[in-house]
Design brief:
Elements: E1 3-5, H1 7-17, E2 21-25, H2 34-45, E3 48-51, E4 73-77, E5 90-93, E6 95-97, H3 102-111, E7 117-122, H4 130-139, E8 143-145, E9 172-176, H5 181-190, E10 194-198, E11 203-206, H6 208-225, E12 230-236, H7 244-256, E13 260-266, H8 271-274, E14 282-285, H9 289-294, E15 303-304, H10 306-312
Parallel strand pairs: 2-3, 2-4, 4-5, 7-8, 7-9, 9-10, 12-13, 12-14, 14-15
Antiparallel strand pairs: 1-6, 10-11
The protein binds iron/sulfur cluster (SF4).
Protein name: 2-(3-amino-3-carboxypropyl)histidine synthase
InterPro entries: DPH1/DPH2, DPH1/DPH2_1, DPH1/DPH2_2, DPH1/DPH2_3, DPH1/DPH2_euk_archaea, Dph2_arc
EC number: 2.5.1.108
């Protein structure tokens, strides 16, 4: 599998910007291309390039690194821009996965039998194939519905933003991409059948078994947190993940139940960084919503989403379980 970058287009923009110092930032899977691209930019623009070696998970932490004080311009590869105000000029560079999605799409057709209107979504690296995917579904007798959302393009989904599937009149949803996380959100927000066409393993699957397993885990975490007397509310210092106002609301909510609450601010969240807080019984994640779900097994103490905290405190019914989202 490979990725295509429009480095020439980036170089043109850097020249127009007359940037002398350029930062480049890549998600983990693309960092192996960093030195090659940095060399090319330096050779063709004369600018000094600084490579961000910090972890980068999304457009939510673009321009959040120490680089913002030392570069004139940042080039962020692999994610699409979010509607937030970045501290320095940022060029977002579309990165196209050359993964063939056709085999997985063909497999998905069997699982979509009996459903006419299909809500189609994918992630940034496959977006350029969206029209081809739509054509394929239509050639196979389906009607395709999709729209964009705040911070997402037509048919694009993020782990913290499900606006592109909300209010879609679909009989079932097809997600083209890897992993199960996005589909859990689609399932919970729509209560419709959801199929994954996963090009990385070239197969399709429905997500019911996965969704049931995750919900059992969430229920166990919520049940364990019912006994908690003290909560740590985690706030991210990353601009696109920071929800301090929400954290304050949650802190008040916890205090009203005569329990202790502390706001913890951190950049990257990890189980090791929470280890010293031994007198805290449960944590609430207001940073990236994926962490509480995807990394649940890494944390010994319950790590809840804000909506799960509401269930723990009796402010929300379990039947109204909702995925967490960030309104950028
Ligand atoms: S908050 Fe999480 S899901 Fe949203 S863009 Fe950032 S890393 Fe991705």
């Amino acid at each position: 599998m490979g990725y295509e970058f429009d480095v020439e287009g980036v170089i043109e923009k850097i020249k127009k910007f007359h940037a002398e110092v350029v930062g480049v930032q890549f998600p983990e899977g693309l960092k192996i291309h960093a030195t090659r691209i940095a060399r090319q930019i330096e050779d063709e623009t004369g600018a000094t390039v600084i490579i961000s070696a910090d972890p980068c998970y999304g457009a939510c932490d673009a321009a959040d690194t120490d680089m913002k004080d030392v570069v004139d311009l940042l080039v962020h590869f692999g994610h699409t821009a979010l509607p937030i105000k970045y501290d320095i000029p940022v060029i977002f560079v579309e990165t196209r996965s050359d993964m063939d999605v056709q085999g997985a799409l063909s497999s998905a057709m069997k699982l979509l039998e009996g459903y006419k209107r299909i809500g189609l979504v994918t992630t940034a690296q496959h977006l350029y194939l969206l029209q081809d995917m739509k054509n394929f579904l239509e050639e196979n007798g389906k009607e395709v519905v999709m729209h964009g959302g705040r911070g997402t393009q037509n048919g694009q989904i993020l782990g913290c933003n499900f606006s592109s599937i909300k209010d879609l009149e679909a009989d079932a949803f097809l997600y083209v991409g890897s992993g199960n996380f996005h589909t859990l959100g689609i399932k919970l927000f729509t209560d419709k059948p959801v199929v994954i066409a996963d090009p990385y393993i070239n197969e399709a699957r429905d997500i019911d078994e996965f969704a049931d397993r995750i919900m059992r885990i969430r229920f166990a975490r919520i049940a364990k947190a019912m006994d908690a007397g003290s909560f740590g509310i985690i706030v991210s210092s990353k601009k696109g993940q920071s929800r301090m106002e929400l954290a304050k609301v949650l802190k008040n909510m916890i205090h009203k139940e005569k329990k202790e609450a502390y706001i913890l601010i951190m950049d990257d969240v990890s189980p090791e960084l929470l280890t010293p807080f031994m007198d805290i019984d449960a944590f609430v994640m207001t940073a990236c919503p994926r962490i509480a779900i995807d990394d649940a097994n890494m944390y010994k103490k319950p790590l809840l989403t804000p909506q799960e905290l509401e269930i723990v405190l009796g402010k929300r019914d379990w039947e109204d379980y909702m995925m967490d989202e960030i309104e950028h």
